[in-house]
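Colleagues,

Please find the record for the two-part complex below.
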Amino acid sequence: MEMLINGKLKKVEQRHEAGVSKQTGFPSPATHYLEPTINLHQELITNSDATFFVRVVGDSLAEFNIMANDVLIIDRSIHPKDNNLALIVDEGEFKIIRIPGCGLREEIMLWGVITYIIHCSR
Amino acid sequence: MIALVDCNSFYASCEQVFRPDLLGRPVVVLINNDGCIIAANKEAKALTNIPMFEPVFKIKKQLKENGVVFFSSNYTLYGEMSQRVINILNTFSPRVEIYSIDESFLDLSVVDYGTLESHGHRIRKTILRYTGLPVGVGIAKTKVLAKLANRMAKKIPEKNHVCVLDTEEKRLEALHWCHIKDVWGIGRKHRERLQKINVHTAYGFTQLPLAWVRKEMTVVGERTWRELRGETAMEFVTEPKLKKAIGTAKSFGKKLTDLGLIEEACSYYVMEVAEVLRNQNSCATRINVFLTTNYHSDIDKQYSNGITVTLALPTDSTFTLITEAKKALRRIYRPGYRYKKVGVNLLGIVPKHHVQGNLFQELSTSQSELTKIVDGLNTKFGKATVSSSMLGTRKRIKKWELIKAERSPRYTTQWGELLEIKL
């Protein structure tokens, strides 16, 4: 990248350095307000050692707003509450259910609580 | 007190986390071009009529008839799951010694844990809930005793996967229970020697005079002897030791005769070992390359050779190492053989900051800048995204790559290989 500085064409060095505008010499009024850009991983995942991503294939589950090809974020560390969506194993098969008020039947294995549904809208 | 946390049939368990339909079924994991079994879960180990150490092609029929499920090794998955376990262990103690991919020691002397028993169960439950992996916990005063406690946790069902040896009485009971062959650190040779003088349990071993142990079994045996008696003789290593040699050798997916393809495989292995080298901030002084045909074959002509080259300057540059490895390879390659395996070893490993230029050569900084950028790109976009052109193309890699026919998806590291939930 080249820039016009003092009427001469010069190569700008360190052009990834933010903070002070090199063109005008005026300090950015945002200098003291800079914050890190939003990081989705940080926002959506609270316990990364217990978090897994899975993809839904085949049919959709309209009543849970889960469509085919959606990616589910699953946190295994969360204790499920009534009405939470969860991934469970029933007779060796994965299923998605809403946790009933009476709790899970004993023979069902909870795999993890679904915390977010990632849906591609294009 | 020290805890040893160890994952039960780790590789098979990793597979079963994502395949709950296989829980309770015999599962084995294969290695080396799917040639033999390297891990089996307890259901598979229970099939004692199958000789699990035989090459897989000989026992495949038996495995299938017994409903054994087999996987090619998926080290990407196992490594990632192992890291999760280590991260969780770090929340239970500030001092964790990673002993292997599925075993770690925890220093519990620095934490307030309530009772040791409940602390052990807490560790076990947390790892199981977070990762789906079952672990056993052994807690005792020394490492060797913790290892013994861990064995009891695994073998004695009433212990419920957690065993604490916190009194003299329990320690002695454990020593009487433990066969000499199962004591950590006592190999086959010493075991046979001990059995000849009528020592069959860990307890018997601890009753031998120290002078005898020191003389017959060196300082290694002495350490084990002391630790079993409850005396700390092994240090707690929280910093991984620098490797003194880094090497890799894998059999080709099929036999190769073409020097070009062997060079590409060799270059790929150099890239892998050079990455390990840089991760520990070291340089290699020498590089060893070896090449071999299939010694198990009766029809092929046999040849094998190896060569070690001293580098002009110690280096960690993939590019320099590949150039030298190829020169070395050309000196040992003979046409007309069907080669099975090529391997590289980096030797004379020294810390990078100790490396000095010599009279004829200065240290090059441009190469290390390039290497840094390449490493950065590969971390971000995946292994070998950017590499030396000597590695050949992906299409050509298929010609020599290991056979991993039954490898499971890399569920936790590849967006394209996520666990699929079929509705």
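The CA atoms of residues 26 and 92 of chain A lie 65 Å apart.

Comments are welcome before we finalize the supplementary table.
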